[in-house]
């Protein structure tokens, strides 16, 4: 499952694994050479198999924060494994690019619904 957005001027691609529902975020500025930024997983316990490999990723509301950073919610659903929600934050435009590529777009646990 894939979902694309442009957040704070950065092209971001979210990818969800059908095996364990983990979500990875990539800088997709160059689609031929995506750069891994962060991964997250809000599931716990033993997961029911997603044998048909179905689900959905969707980007939600965008918020511009007081410090100039930009935040967007990412929703991830994997059949038989539940729904996850993550907050993805890109720092304000003047921040060092290395900070964004290293950790600033980290996924932060919001909630898990089963």
Spell out the blueprint of helices and strands.
Elements: E1 2-7, E2 10-16, E3 23-27, E4 35-40, E5 55-64, E6 70-78, E7 82-90, H1 97-104, E8 107-113
Antiparallel strand pairs: 1-2, 2-3, 3-4, 5-6, 6-7, 7-8
In short:
This protein has 1 helix and 8 strands. The chain is mainly β.
Radius of gyration: 14 Å
Shape: globular
Unreliable segments of 5+ consecutive residues? 96-114
Please give the count of helices: 1
- N-to-C CA distance: 19 Å
* Strands ordered across the widest β-sheet: 1-2-3-4
Question: What fraction of residues sit in β-strands?
Answer: over 45%
Count of DSSP E strands? 8
How many discrete domains?
Answer: 1
Sheet/helix structural class: mainly beta
User: What fraction, in percent, of the residue positions are helical?
Assistant: under 10%
Topology as a string of helices (H) and strands (E): EEEEEEEHE
**Main sheet record:** 4 strands, antiparallel
Arithmetic mean pLDDT: 76
What does this structure look like?
- The protein has 114 residues and is mostly beta strands.
- It has one domain (2-44, 53-113).
- The protein is built from one helix and eight strands, in the order βββββββαβ.
- The chain has one helix at 97-104; strands spanning 2-7, 10-16, 23-27, 35-40, 55-64, 70-78, 82-90, 107-113.
- The strands form two sheets. It has a four-stranded antiparallel beta sheet with strand order 1-2-3-4, covered by helices on one side.
